[in-house]
Amino acid sequence: xxxxxxxxxxxxxxxxxxxxxxxxxxxxxxxxxxxxxxxxxxxxxxxxxxxxxxxxxxxxxxxxxxxxxxxxxxxxxxxxxxxxxxxxxxxxxxxxxxxxxxxxxxxxxxxxxxxxxxxxx
Length: 121
Known about the structure:
Elements: H1 2-16, H2 20-28, H3 37-40, H4 44-59, H5 66-106, H6 115-119
């Protein structure tokens, strides 16, 4: 049973890795793409509109399988909306890390003995 579940999860992960929203999220999680996290949240708007259209169609007597599209669109919208604040936090962390590295590179390091101290004790 566990083997079957494990195999199914590996296969679905391989398939879902190439889904458009997952590719967008992966692109915004790179250092270069972190600044695009908030604008990428706007992509959630068409997903929400599509979900709303499907709900309206279902309420007016449309097919029940549209419920799956509602779930898919809502899930993708939630992923994109949550990705925005996460990328802001990741961008802040990266900039702080880079600032600390620049500061350390500028100042001399007095904690280490100088090179000439090893040669001339």
